[in-house]
Design a protein that fits this description.
alpha+beta; Thiol Ester Dehydrase, Chain A; 2 domains; six-stranded antiparallel beta sheet; two-stranded antiparallel ribbon; 8 strands; globular
Length: about 170
């Protein structure tokens, strides 16, 4: 940990995230899309996500938390939330993370998505915590942890890669 709480502080006034750090004050970067803007994007352009009941709750630079409101239609035989619904939530959460760093680049698209189902989610809201692992000029890689609301055990772990269109 550096003197200002940044674990990637290099000692040259810059940390590894492009944040200029001084000894008196550290400015926090802002996400390039807000929660309200992302939820508006869901409502107007990600209609399946809206139909499923997905909403962004928090967006920071390179991070996002989304909630999937529980609905009986999400249940598969066996009383658990269907895998495709969980995958959709993770995909939308990872999209939010990419847009948090790039702004509204709607043509950033999923190129791969891998999910590991770890345990049976309860029939309640599902919470997605996503973060960027690496972003380059053409690709962004992120991960997402899914949780049943109110539980500490992860129900699924997801990694995904997004293609970033040329500027």
């Amino acid at each position: 940990m550096g003197p200002h709480g940044a674990s990637r502080f290099r000692g040259d006034g810059e940390c590894g995230y492009g944040i200029h750090m001084t000894t008196t004050k550290m400015s926090k970067p802002k996400p390039k899309i807000t929660v309200a803007e992302f939820n508006q994007l869901i409502d107007k352009h990600l209609l399946l996500a809206a139909q499923f009941g997905m909403r962004a709750e928090k967006i920071g630079p390179g991070t996002a938390t989304l909630r999937l409101r529980f609905h009986q239609s999400h249940i598969r035989p066996g009383g658990t939330i269907a895998g495709p619904v969980q995958m959709a939530l993770a995909d939308v959460a990872l999209y939010a993370v990419v847009l948090s760093l790039l702004g509204r680049v709607e043509l950033a698209v999923t190129t791969s998505l891998n999910i590991n189902f770890l345990r049976r989610p309860a029939p309640v809201d599902v919470i997605a915590h996503a973060k960027i692992l690496k972003i380059g000029k053409r690709l962004a890689v992120g991960e997402c942890a899914l949780y049943s609301d109110g539980e500490d055990e992860m129900v699924a772990h997801v990694t995904g890669t997004y293609s970033i269109p040329p500027a």
